[in-house]
Task: structure prediction
Amino acid sequence: MGEKSLVMTFLNEVGARTSVTLPAVKDDVTPEEISAAMDVIIEKNIFQTTGGDLKVKHSAQIIERNVSEIEVR
Result:
């Protein structure tokens, strides 16, 4: 079974990287949608970090992971 997660990385007030990971990202998400979501996160200031508010978009990645269940009983 394949799993996809969206990892959005920001720089906070002290310039440190902070990542937000969202599981179960849809297959057809666009770079524009991701960028817009990151803008909203910065604008609404909804996450708190030890280095202060999130200030700048740094990067975004979609991570794909394959999981194979194994019956062991």
User: Anything to note?
Assistant: Residues 49 and 58 are 15 Å apart (CA to CA). Residues 31-44 form the longest helix (14 residues). The helical segments are 31-44.
